[in-house]
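Appendix B, example 12.
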Amino acid sequence: MIRWALVLGFSLGLVAVLYLATGSGAVSPAELLRDPAATVGYPVRIGALSNLGVVGWTCAASVLAFAGFAAEGAPMPERNASLSLALLLAVLGLDDLFLLHERVLPGKAGIPQGVVLAAYGIGAAVIGLLHRDIWWRRENRTLLGFAAVAFAASLAIDLNGVPGQVAIEDGAKLVGIATLTVWSFVYGRSLVSERDGDAGD
């Protein structure tokens, strides 16, 4: 019963957001509902890798969130670590999808891009430090470290600027997302396996 209430509440929430956004007539429903390529008429290849990056953020966040909630046999610190990282990745995915730190927050809220990036960095550092024993004792810590290096390289290029910046910066970020997505599946599986192992004892 609870799950159906959640589904119904989420669906009604989406309908309410659509109604509020389009009620004034300033925005049409098609602008919010249709694919951008179909609405604007540009080739579907534009932003294709960026879209795949958003898919990667979403997959990683979803897997970690599921593992954190489902792995009832795993130690609570590990479940909390998984859920904390899932929340951060979900925020980063939304940022990547809606250009929050590049356009929305600086342009609409007046929050400088550097402040937004610093907030993300602080969040990542806090999660990393609070759960450092969990991250680095796993067999897959090499993947997590490689992803961190790729993201750091992307951020450094974004802030300092280098020739061919777009390809290098976004390429490094895409490598980081892909690596992090693979890592999330490995880590999530290990948590759920702990639950299954306890159930079989």
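The chain has a mean pLDDT of 88. Residues 47-200 form one domain.
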